[in-house]
Amino acid sequence: MEWTSPDWACPNFPVSFEGQEVVSTETIIADMNALLDMVTDGDTSARSKVLHVAHMFVTLQEADGHWAAMRNLRTGEPVGTARTAAPIPVFARLGEMLQSSEFDHAIERASTSTVFV
Amino acid sequence: MEHEDQLSRLKAQSQDNPLSRRDFMRVLSVATTAGTGLMTAAFTGMNLTSTQRAEAAEALVDGMGKMPKVQFGTRLGKMKVTPVTMCQDWNPELFGPALALGCNFIHKAGYWKGNVPSEIAKLPRESYYTDITVDSTPENPDDYDNAYNQVISSLNANGLKYYDVFRAHYGWKSVNVFKTQTGTYRAFQRLKKEGKVKYFGVSQHPFIPYPEMIQAEIDSGLIDAMQVQVTYGMKKEDMEIFAKASKAGIAMTAMKICAYGMGTMRKDNARQDQLKASGLPGRALLRDVLTAKRPDGKPIFQTCVTALGNVQHFDENMGSVATKTAMLDGFGEYHSLIQHEA
Q1: pLDDT band at B180 (very low <50, low <70, confident <90, very high)
Q2: For residues A4 and A14, what is the distance between their CA atoms, to the nearest angstrom?
Q3: Does A48 contact B261 at a Cβ distance shorter than 8 Å?
């Protein structure tokens, strides 16, 4: 797993190879889940990386409650028109792990969406 | 060499079975003799039980010394905070050690539901400070009801009685929206009258260039506390506007220091050496930020927030300004800059 540059619009996002720009949201979410699988009681540092990406996904949630299915991580711009709700389960997982309300509002926005994905 | 061989053997052994009490004490003895800087190296890779981790952290804290406390801007009454704050999403095993170092501010405490860590829940509420990051900004900055209800439902869930700082999270996307869509601020005003929050702040992400947004926030006079992204080697104009906000009395917190700066600092051995943190880029980053100065010579930032997931991170980050560790490192610059109480 490599990471996008801090200078990019989507900084410190997981990618398959250095310099990769266009990534599907589902792939990013799969990487986030793989990192969360590494968390232990003694070492939660993998979750810190996931939280950073999750925080960014909160700001990328759009008016319909969903996200672009593909995104250019360097520019931050969506690629294509396909939509996805892929971040929602990882928001819920983080909320459960941390017993936190941090992502409740983003989950609620997606749940009240009238767009089918 | 004998100690290294012994530690390697015990490290390998711990992967299969927890260390016996005798073996753990052996590791602790070697680590304690080595000094705090090498203590976490001794424990790195060691598979410890939670009790053993707690004991190792206690030994580490003993060697680090207390964190100093600094006046948090001029607008938050007599609030004094440690230069590194706790954060709700830390590894929960680190709250006890952080409190032992004197840490007294918890960022994002508002996200706790009924699960405030016991080490914190048992403290008198007035003995520590908290913020709640209110999520009406950036998408719905005018949403008075949601902003108000988030604070109320949070306090009902976690019993923290009040938050010291109501922090608009993630901040506003434009100066125009900040000035005209004021529902979030009006919710703060009502909550303040009700005794649920005390001061208004922001965790401002750079949706637009920082100088423009932060100048507007300074000019408004509304912001008592500001949290901003700080990157090692960031643009001069960004640091200048942060210095202006700090000079205006706004309590300044730096965030994302390690997330965004680690790659660059890791390669900057010269700067690590200057900051007496060779081989410890996280420590170097915090020292770099906490000693960044305003034109009047005072520090720009009073505190920073950093993600901590294990004891190694705890040592590297907190050791940046913990009194004994800084002294042992030969890093006196920060403590010379500040007036503090241990």
Answers
A1: very high
A2: 7
A3: no
